[in-house]
Amino acid sequence: MTKHSRRQFFQNAIPVTIGTTIGLSNVSAMGNSASTSIEKKMKIVVVGAHPDDPETICGGLMAMYSGLGHEVVSVYLTRGEAGIEGKTHEESAKIRTAEALTACAILKVRPEFIGQIDGNCEITSERYAPLLDLFKKEKPDIVLTHWPIDSHRDHRICSILVYDAWLNTGRKSALYYCEAMSGVQSQNFAPTDYVDITGVVEQKHKACFAHVSQEIEQTYSEHHGKMEKFRGMEFGCDYAEAFVRHVKSPGIYLK
């Protein structure tokens, strides 16, 4: 993998897609420079199963792209209905939706909710439609979602629904898979691409810690934090996020 300097990256401006680039040797150089001009405004759609999933699996990337002026959409398959012990589904959904909205404000991204139920996500002919409709409406340049080999059923279902929507909109977006607590949840995850998130890691953490009901701040270093540091060691920086690029993603190159 070739690394590009910050100067080389900004001379070329931001790529039209993460495709050849989240490979990012290039996106990895973005750092935290929100003032850099962009040639083409892109739309990035991140689909997670629960409130806190988009933030933990690629909150650094989301912060970098939104900071550069691109439109980032954080899509939640559920509202975390089963995620707070001792609370009803309705109570949990209200609390976790509010936390997601706070996290999105921190990352400067737009939230969307699909309407499935936490712990009871389904793959049916009817359930394919909402994500397909969202893809048709949003027309994303880049899509990121869960790696499909995951111990959490909702993560697996989310990944499959996103893949189906991507196929049925003509594979026009660059599709990337993200890891979630690898070793505990994501399995057999072998990255193809890395992003240096050192410049925005505090912003990512603040967004993740907005999910107070999940006690993420207390446990972050044991799971997500270890991943960020390990991927940073692999890529040669302090903190990084890692991704797997779908081989049939469109190849749109740097100018």
Architecture overview:
- The protein is an alpha/beta fold and 255 residues long.
- The chain has eight helices and seven strands; from the N terminus they run αβαβαβαβαββαααβ.
- A seven-stranded mixed β-sheet has the order 3-2-1-4-5-7-6, with helices on both faces.
- It starts with 5 loop residues before the first helix and ends in a 10-residue tail after the last strand.
- The relative contact order is 0.19.
- The N terminus is likely disordered.
What fraction of the residues are assigned to beta strands by DSSP?
A: 15-25%
List the uncertain runs: 1-37
Q: Please count the helical segments.
A: 8
The secondary structure category is: alpha/beta
Fraction of helical residues: 25-40%
| Quaternary status | single chain
Summarize model confidence as the mean pLDDT. 86
Rg is 17 Å
User: Which shape, going by the Cα principal axes?
Assistant: globular
Distance between the termini: 19 Å
* Order of adjacent strands in the largest pleated sheet: 3-2-1-4-5-7-6
Compressed to H and E, one letter per element, the order equals: HEHEHEHEHEEHHHE
Largest sheet: 7 strands, mixed
